[in-house]
Amino acid sequence: MDTKIDEIADGIFRLSTFVPEIGPPDGFTFNQFLILGDDPLLFHTGLRRMFPSIRAALERVLPSDRLRWISFGHYEADECGAMNEWLAVAPRSQVAHGQTACLVSLNDMADRPPRILQDGEVIDLGLGKRVRYIDTPHVPHGWEAGVLYEEATSTLLCGDLFTQLGNRAALTEGDVVGPAIAAEDLFGYSTLSPTMGATIRTLAALSPRTLALMHGPAFRGDGATALRALADDYDRRVRQASA
Ligand SMILES: [Fe+2]
Ligand SMILES: [Fe+2]
Prior knowledge:
This protein starts with a strand and ends with a helix. The chain is globular, with a radius of gyration of 17 Å. By secondary structure, it is α/β, with parallel strands linked by helices. The relative contact order is 0.15. The protein binds fe (ii) ion (2 copies).
């Protein structure tokens, strides 16, 4: 197992592990994002069994014990399976997530008490980096789902939104909407709900310049237009499902 690491925005690194056995013949990537600062943050921990490979890649940029914050989109193995492994190697680190994730799962499952973030709350990481936590319940799945937005670089850490197959370059300016629609057709991983499109449009209002996909390349460009197109497609799916 080999994990790559690339800088996709100023001070934001994408760690990516490609698994050809998932979704063949294209395969599937699992990505984590490291934001540097006085208090560095890791978004997604990776699967527990990927921990040694992901840790080795992270250490090319930062000693693991310097991590201060561990956060992720929702409570699933690829998002947070290695949470306690990171807490063990980074003694000053703490899990940070929304109220629902903490009260429902993390207060029990994390080896140290998590920090509960209110919707819209900002953590100042230092060195100019500020991450805002945004509740996105059930989008794309999980009651406790949320995303992070790094304000200085306008980077939306959008978790499973825009999930796609394949192993493209770390950063693309190409289409990320078409491949996301294809992956949704294949996996059906999202909770189709009447409010899904509206939730995604609130993220479009941030006008992100970079979308950091958990499963796919990072996208640099007009993030608002991509998010609105994705929202429109989910609206279409909801209409179809309820027709
Ligand atoms: Fe997920
Ligand atoms: Fe995921």
